């Protein structure tokens, strides 16, 4: 599964690069895949085929000029050495994702070799420092009998002895050894007194050793592993964990490759039916025979046809939670792509030479999407960085690989190895420690601070509440000022309400100008000219006072908005009340069509003055005793400060509102009683209708005002002011404007005096 996934990761990276316009534009990367089966002989055959321009497939060999400009491989050091020695003289770049032998850093022997995995030169030293750190001065050692194991162990022994660590035994095995040979090595381990075993083994040798270790029931050893097997997921079974449980070792950092899992799940034999490797993988994944022949069919065999779905299986191929070596393949492909890109950018000819690609590869320096910077030193090696992992069981009893330390060769020697031994990882800023019941105090879980609380240091025991006017940021690591909310002129709601207010003022002025233009006509005279203009003036003030509710509340705006609202509406209702009284008195004391009796004019003026003056007294007392003031409401919303006007005295506010309501009720009663006056002189029915709208608006205003949050409270109040003002303007003056503009023939003394004609 490992090798097949490496190949699929390579294909994924190539297809991803080919789809990018910024990297190798108008050029597509192709590929050939060879299976060396871990054999040095097969590696030599593959390298010869590449250099001779031959394409080896499962079916045939065909000749032709090679287009191969670089080689990815191999996964084992011995095979990679053979491959690199064959291609080195021709300067064909070879990039390995898994060959770690320090010998490959020799530029004289391997001039065109590169790798995206650190050299064992560093891993062997890191393992020696690890053993020294834990005070394990008496250890056993076992290695693969190949270039990887022999070179790695030789460096480990040299450094370990220099650090004062003694090696009880050092055994070598090969996957091709006989069972008797493997048994003898296990017997040495079993008889040894060292309780720590350093296993510098490739996966093949680890498999055969574990088989015999389990067979002889060798337990109680502390295993120290190399990167080849320490994070091999297939080994982390409950059965094997009885032997390897608690193992520690170094591995390269894991990473994520966006889109890879989706790509892997689409793999299917139908993509390439002749691909023997794909067929073998499918049969292993589903435990079946793919496309069986009649001769191979037996009663007990399970068959499959390629319609199976990889989403239904769980194995190392589809598990992308620990992408380590696969990420090395991914980085290797991108390194080649950038090298080709840089080579072509400096060339006038499209013919690429191996030496040119190798030179660009040596100087390549780019950053992956993950943020990792990729470059090679003079030996073709990357910067050596490792994670120290420990095999631990989680709550479900499954073995997990927990990072407990780091090794960074780019740091000074005293800072390179940083082991950590903790029950719980540190809580980052924004979290606090929470004790786990029944566990020691050093074992804790990290809980995110609640909203409005922060922690600024690592491993905080408690979260700190933010000040009243502050709130926690997204990470809960610092307090920031809360958002400030009020109904402003810049937002959509403020703009809309302002537009309605100005529209109301404009319409009111237009009606006043029209009345002034037709002031000598019988209809305007009969409408009580003085009260009409005073009513239009008060309506203009009503529309304008709504603007005082928009904008950031200040001390002056808070006092102005409520008092202006109360006085202007009192003036408006006073005019309507006087107008209603005038209609009734005019009908009872004059002939229709004549002017209002002069004796009623002082009464109208006095009633308007005193009704308005009483509201002025209420507002004055309110402002003197407990005026409205700006107020920061921090209780309604947790993360927002609502700027509003505190009423100061709720009694004052409701007294102002109640007085307006009293005037409107008086107007409504009088207008309702006068609704049956003759139609040609009956303004009362329109006043009645306008007051119905007025009262309905303000009755519904009360529950809406009480229940609306934040700036919507102000918006509801503005809406009530505008709606009631428009209701009065339209209901009282629209019928008159209609006659003046569209029915001028009815605007005569004759029509007004004739009861048979309906004017309004």
Automatic annotation (TrEMBL):
Any one GO MF annotation of this record = G protein-coupled receptor activity
Membrane-related topology note: Multi-pass membrane protein
Domain G-protein coupled receptors family 3 profile spans what residues?
A: 493-756
Q: Note the superkingdom of the native organism.
A: Eukaryota
- Which Gene Ontology cellular component terms are annotated? plasma membrane
User: What is this protein's name?
Assistant: Olfactory receptor C family, h1
Entry keyword set: Cell membrane, G-protein coupled receptor, Glycoprotein, Membrane, Receptor, Signal, Transducer, Transmembrane, Transmembrane helix
UniProt cross-references to InterPro entries, sorted A to Z: ANF_lig-bd_rcpt, GPCR_3, GPCR_3_9-Cys_dom, GPCR_3_9-Cys_sf, GPCR_3_C, GPCR_3_Ca_sens_rcpt-rel, GPCR_3_CS, GPCR_3_vmron_rcpt_2
Q: Which CDD domains match?
A: 7tmC_V2R_pheromone, PBP1_CaSR
Q: Belongs to which family? A: Belongs to the G-protein coupled receptor 3 family.
PROSITE patterns xref list: G_PROTEIN_RECEP_F3_3 (PS00981), G_PROTEIN_RECEP_F3_4 (PS50259)
**SUPFAM superfamilies of this UniProt entry?**
Periplasmic binding protein-like I
Please list every transmembrane segment annotated in the UniProt record, as residue ranges: 493-519, 531-551, 563-587, 608-631, 651-674, 686-706, 718-741
Q: Where in the cell is it found?
A: Cell membrane
């Amino acid at each position: 599964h490992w090798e097949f996934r490496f190949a699929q990761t390579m294909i994924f990276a190539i297809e991803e690069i080919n789809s990018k316009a910024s990297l190798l534009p108008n050029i597509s990367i192709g590929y050939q895949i060879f299976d060396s089966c871990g054999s040095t002989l097969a590696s030599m055959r593959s390298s010869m085929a590449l250099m001779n321009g031959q394409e080896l497939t499962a079916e045939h060999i065909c000749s032709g000029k090679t287009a191969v400009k670089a080689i990815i491989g191999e996964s084992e050091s011995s095979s990679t050495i053979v491959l690199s020695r064959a291609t080195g003289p021709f300067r064909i770049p070879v990039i390995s994702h898994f060959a770690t032998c320090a010998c490959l850093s020799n530029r004289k022997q391997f001039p065109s070799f590169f790798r995206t995995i650190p050299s064992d030169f560093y891993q062997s030293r890191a393992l020696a420092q690890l053993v020294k750190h834990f005070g394990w001065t008496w250890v056993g050692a076992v290695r693969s009998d190949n270039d990887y194991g022999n070179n790695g162990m030789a460096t480990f022994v040299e450094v370990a002895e220099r650090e004062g660590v003694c090696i009880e035994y050092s055994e070598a095995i090969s996957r091709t050894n006989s069972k008797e040979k493997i048994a003898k090595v296990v017997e040495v381990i079993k008889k040894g007194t060292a309780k720590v075993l350093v296993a510098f083994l490739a996966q093949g040798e680890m498999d055969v050793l574990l088989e015999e270790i389990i067979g002889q029931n060798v337990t109680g050893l502390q295993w120290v592993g190399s990167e080849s097997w320490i994070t091999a997921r297939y080994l982390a079974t409950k059965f094997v964990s009885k032997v390897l449980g608690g193992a520690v070792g170094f591995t390269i950092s894991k990473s994520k490759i966006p889109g890879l899992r989706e790509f892997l799940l689409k793999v299917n034999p139908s993509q390439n039916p002749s691909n023997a490797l794909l067929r073998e993988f499918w049969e292993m994944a589903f435990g079946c025979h793919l496309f069986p022949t009649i001769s191979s069919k037996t009663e007990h065999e399970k068959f499959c046809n390629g319609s199976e779905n990889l989403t239904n299986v769980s194995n190392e191929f589809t598990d992308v939670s620990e992408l380590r070596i696969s990420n090395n393949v991914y980085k290797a492909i991108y390194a080649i792509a950038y090298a080709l890109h840089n080579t072509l950018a400096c060339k006038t000819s499209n013919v690429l030479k191996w030496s040119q690609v190798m030179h660009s590869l040596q100087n390549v320096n780019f950053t992956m999407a993950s943020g990792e910077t990729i470059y090679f030193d003079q030996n073709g090696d990357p910067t050596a960085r490792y994670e120290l992992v420990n095999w631990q069981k989680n709550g479900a009893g499954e073995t997990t690989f927990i990072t407990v330390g780091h090794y960074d060769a780019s740091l000074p020697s005293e800072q390179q190895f940083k082991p950590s031994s903790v029950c719980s990882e540190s809580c980052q800023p924004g979290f606090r420690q929470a004790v786990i019941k029944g566990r020691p105090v050093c074992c804790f879980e990290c809980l995110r601070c609640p909203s409005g609380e922060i922690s600024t240091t690592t491993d905080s025991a408690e979260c700190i509440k933010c000040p009243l006017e502050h709130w926690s940021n997204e990470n809960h690591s610092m307090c920031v000022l809360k958002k400030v909310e009020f109904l402003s002129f810049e937002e959509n709601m403020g703009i809309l309400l302002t537009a309605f207010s100005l529209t109301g003022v404009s319409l009111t002025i237009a009606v006043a100008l029209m009345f002034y233009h037709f002031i000598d006509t019988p209809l305007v005279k009969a409408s009580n000219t003085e009260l009409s203009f005073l009513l239009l003036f008060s309506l203009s003030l009503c529309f304008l006072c709504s603007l005082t509710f928009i904008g950031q509340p200040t001390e002056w705006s808070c006092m102005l908005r409520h008092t202006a609202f109360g006085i202007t509406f009192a003036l408006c209702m006073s005019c309507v009340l006087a107008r209603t009284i005038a209609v009734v008195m005019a009908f009872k004391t004059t002939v229709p069509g004549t002017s209002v009796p002069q004796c009623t004019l002082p009464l109208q003026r006095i009633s308007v003055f005193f009704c308005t003056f009483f509201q002025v007294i209420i507002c004055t007392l309110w402002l003197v005793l407990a005026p409205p003031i700006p107020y920061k409401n921090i209780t309604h919303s947790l993360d927002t400060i609502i700027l509003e006007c505190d009423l100061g005295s709720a009694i004052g506010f409701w007294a102002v509102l109640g007085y307006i309501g009293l005037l409107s009720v008086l107007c409504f009663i009088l207008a309702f009683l006068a609704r049956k006056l003759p139609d040609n002189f009956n303004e009362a029915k329109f006043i009645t209708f306008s007051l119905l709208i007025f009262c309905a608006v303000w009755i519904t205003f009360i529950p809406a005002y009480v229940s609306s949050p934040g700036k919507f409270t102000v918006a509801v109040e503005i809406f009530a002011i505008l709606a009631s003002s428009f209701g009065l303007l339209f209901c009282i003056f629209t019928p008159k404007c209609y006659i003046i503009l569209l029915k001028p023939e009815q605007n005569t003394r004759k029509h007004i005096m004739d009861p048979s004609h309906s004017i309004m």
